[in-house]
Fold this protein.
Amino acid sequence: MSSNKIPVGILGATGSVGQKFIELLSDHPWFEITEVAASERSSGKKYKDAVNWILSSAIPEKIKELEVKDCEANLNCNIVFSGLDSSVAGPIEEAFAKKGYKVVSNSKNHRMDQNVPLLVPEINPDHLELVKTQNFSGGCIVTNPNCSTIGLVIGLKPLLDNFGLEEVNVVTMQALSGAGYPGVASLDTIDNVIPYIPSEEDKLETEPLKIFGKLDSDKIQSNEVKISAQCNRVSVLNGHTECVQVKFKNKPSKKEIIHAWRNFSAEPQKLNLHMAPMNTIYYLEEEKYPQPRIHRNLDKGMAVSIGRLREDPLFDYKFVALSHNTNRGAAGGAILCGELMISKGYIK
Amino acid sequence: MSSNKIPVGILGATGSVGQKFIELLSDHPWFEITEVAASERSSGKKYKDAVNWILSSAIPEKIKELEVKDCEANLNCNIVFSGLDSSVAGPIEEAFAKKGYKVVSNSKNHRMDQNVPLLVPEINPDHLELVKTQNFSGGCIVTNPNCSTIGLVIGLKPLLDNFGLEEVNVVTMQALSGAGYPGVASLDTIDNVIPYIPSEEDKLETEPLKIFGKLDSDKIQSNEVKISAQCNRVSVLNGHTECVQVKFKNKPSKKEIIHAWRNFSAEPQKLNLHMAPMNTIYYLEEEKYPQPRIHRNLDKGMAVSIGRLREDPLFDYKFVALSHNTNRGAAGGAILCGELMISKGYIK
Amino acid sequence: MSSNKIPVGILGATGSVGQKFIELLSDHPWFEITEVAASERSSGKKYKDAVNWILSSAIPEKIKELEVKDCEANLNCNIVFSGLDSSVAGPIEEAFAKKGYKVVSNSKNHRMDQNVPLLVPEINPDHLELVKTQNFSGGCIVTNPNCSTIGLVIGLKPLLDNFGLEEVNVVTMQALSGAGYPGVASLDTIDNVIPYIPSEEDKLETEPLKIFGKLDSDKIQSNEVKISAQCNRVSVLNGHTECVQVKFKNKPSKKEIIHAWRNFSAEPQKLNLHMAPMNTIYYLEEEKYPQPRIHRNLDKGMAVSIGRLREDPLFDYKFVALSHNTNRGAAGGAILCGELMISKGYIK
Amino acid sequence: MSSNKIPVGILGATGSVGQKFIELLSDHPWFEITEVAASERSSGKKYKDAVNWILSSAIPEKIKELEVKDCEANLNCNIVFSGLDSSVAGPIEEAFAKKGYKVVSNSKNHRMDQNVPLLVPEINPDHLELVKTQNFSGGCIVTNPNCSTIGLVIGLKPLLDNFGLEEVNVVTMQALSGAGYPGVASLDTIDNVIPYIPSEEDKLETEPLKIFGKLDSDKIQSNEVKISAQCNRVSVLNGHTECVQVKFKNKPSKKEIIHAWRNFSAEPQKLNLHMAPMNTIYYLEEEKYPQPRIHRNLDKGMAVSIGRLREDPLFDYKFVALSHNTNRGAAGGAILCGELMISKGYIK
């Protein structure tokens, strides 16, 4: 390697999340992709021949000719970003951690493990300390939340901190890319809505409780906000839109809420992490906003756009939140976790 | 006219709701379209030359050559179905009523008038009596609810009757045809969601209270269920999908709810009205149902499809309801009102 | 069986073409579905449990409970309609023919076999005689053309007969349903065009030559019109749109062409076959027509809609043709073949 | 103005092409937007309040607060880029030229004027000389071709130069954004194709003849290649896809054609113009490419992607070409013209 960058490997490199990792890391100032690994079917091929590239950016030149390796824990890198399918991710990620690799995973398998941080750098950077309780010799596993969780918890964080939250109700309209590739059949999405995404509602009702939890010596005390989620698939390429209702411990004014969102700045901004959005949250005044096609790419697709805050007859307030599900909600969010780990000395 | 059918006129005949009236009435056993009326721009032309037909059925042969008239109250018919734009509907419909026409309107203008029934034949057929309090010499105005209201109130009716309702929360994903033609720009809907429909949430929060109201001598006592609504436009041609949460007065079992839906049968079925769906409500067992493209046309697009009933952490239950917004939610619903009026002797 | 109808079986009954067969045959006056057969994965289950029904009509009640059988040639019926995937259709269809079944297939496998009719009842009903040359004891195989071929050849037939054709150039914009289910990934079709459909252009350049061929005692002399085809997949549910250019042997006037289309009537109309469209071809005057969503369902989805006839600087004329790919272009076309076989005495 | 950049005004600044001009010029090294002008309805307002911004990038900060002016020829700038609607563009552009402004227009009004260059910097940079024959005191008008023309002529240029062209046949599948905003109704494009775009085919058949023409002292001798065009609107946001067939004067091999495309480099690359694509043409090997969603953004949306070159039974070859209709085909192409004018000394 010709640089001082940290060598990284991508697990599940040919999948849709894997491609996003490659796109976002292609010009990264701290990381350099040295290894791409995928299933047996791809291994041994050049990356450009193994992948069915579905992004609208071109495959980075330096990745095209890399040989795809097996997902065996003998890759030439310090850190691996995992976009593996959850059907195989669990044991592979563990094997890597045991061999001393820092594993940052976008898969669900280890998210709820007691000693694995479910990390959102703007929300719970202190949870990183949990890795010290992991029994891997030098390696570790850190996870990124589900793509529908991330927009919600970021939108809620300043509200939780400033006013306290009792109840959260959320109905999602989620993008097709959230299901990977080939994912959802076009016959199911043209002129249609699918009001069901397997196991998604459960994730959205439980992951925030861990993310908002308090680190108490070596374990997380779950937060106790009550959440109800309903998840729908709509005909959108990227960007999950969420209709959110909240009941506060101390009901603030509309103005106070907007102020809390607009002034929300956290660890990634302070540490000047590369993938950190300039503003983690944008509050948009126009009644018809946010919209996925218009706002999903704000700040490299890492910002959460919020709009339509208004009083609610059943809860206190309702609003609409939007975030990019494969940038903020998957690869971009995981890279931000990796950057935090460097910045905090967990990766050298 | 060569038949014993009741002659009807269509106001706003070239618009999208007007076209739906024409499609649904083309083979109707009780009604025969004798007049089509529209704005000045169209009047004097043959219908086929005035209309930009957007339905996938062909224009009925006998309508093609009809001359489009002005919306003046001198049409050769007893009853008019109005699909007029709300910017003009109010005074025109009144003018017709004053001249003795029975006006069945799909426009919002008179819906909340104190002496105008907001009629859903399965729910409040008794509200028809309100027309007796109208000051029109022989004429009257009857209205049909908003296209997003109808699926909701039908789904709720058996629950209200059997178990009592305290709170209702609804988030809609509404079809493009609900905005008429040209309506929503394609640049706004491709790869997008619009989380805002002007004044729609207000209708959805207030119309049900009148529909579920009690007729008390000559006025309606509003129902007191509390409703919160959030409305979104998605890329679907026809069919509004609604995520609904309910809190009951007396919480039933899941089984009892499904039983109430499946056994719901009402006035239109008893009276054997032509447009009445065989089953007003279908409860679908498959977790991924209902879907607009698959289920919107059930029973001539007049049935409401419901699925995914499950317990809710904040309310008692949540479920998904779907109904065809231009059939059940507009022209078809209005025709059913007309049929009820015949059956009850309000039209002869 | 409670009727005098001819018992039929559906091969590949759970697939997308199989479902269309079931939908179109559910009220058929001559045929009654007695058997549904599919792959091992489905066999033994009730149809409603085996199928992932994707049509907007409901599953016919009497089919729901049928047990799905293996595709073994021991079904209780006289005729089988095959919607089998081409990866398996060849030998299965042969096995059925050998056991005496009349096989009407929508699969490509036997289409170009020398003694198998590639049948379009409006065009080459005499080709049915080819089955007499087949070596099956009582059974036979008859095929239906590819879904993009059928609209083209029907549009060309009156031109060929009246004016002679030298060259045909066609560019298609084909519907998603043409690829079956799950078929095309939604990530490939949202906000996109795929300018390639494997082996489709070859079918479109060769099948018409056989269909337009002359039956010469026991074989088909291929027609010699020169055809060039380019095939694209667009985001449309049903209905293939084709931009066609033609060079004639004797160049007619625009008026003569339209007259030839509008007066085209053939065997299925004369024999009054059930699935026969009232008009096989509709010529539409409006410049913006035909459009798939508006015109694909004309005459039960069995008619071909044509519009925009105009002079061409390179060929003689150009025009746009549209036909429903799963009705006319698959199951409906195959059923029409079956009806012709009954009418001509090939099935009793 | 705080820079040495050339001050430019945008005519039609609130429209869809105007927005694209603003997006692409926001960081331009040579130009700085000092004026935004639009119709009376907008003038006097701040840009951010006048515009219905439809792009997925944010409105540039420095433009938001600019006051929208009338389209009167008294703007504070040297050059105006016009994205005016063709219903008003003609006389306004002339008025600006007469007052000494350099007008670079994307509107069709003056494209075919004898002394107005129809400019594609890669193809006919010498046509710029035509402005010397214009009777404007210091001002001039230069035009950019239609958005469907540009991809075609760029793809053809290396073929014309190397092998000579006799006939060109093209069928387009054009993006929604080509019709501006609100443009095409969503009800017309969901699950649909519109096989007609008013006056588009005529532009595509005539503009290339002028672009490929020879400048002969003070006028253009039209090229004599014969072109036939068929134009369709499909459900794609950006990017026109074109199926092209060509007949050569001297038929080359497939290899020679691909070589000609890949080695095509022209004036903008030599002059190192800012908006010049790195490669004007990309030839893609994968059979399923080019696709609008994947390739339209190559090289800032200024490159033309070509694929699927194959022999044709009627012409010599066929292939698929794709270009971004609002970048390369509108604002981006016009800016490139402006850059060429600077580089050649026409603007100082």
About this structure: Residues 331 and 341 of chain C are 15 Å apart (CA to CA). Chain C touches chain B at residues 53-58, 190-191, 237, 293-298 (CB under 8 Å). Chain C has a mean pLDDT of 96.
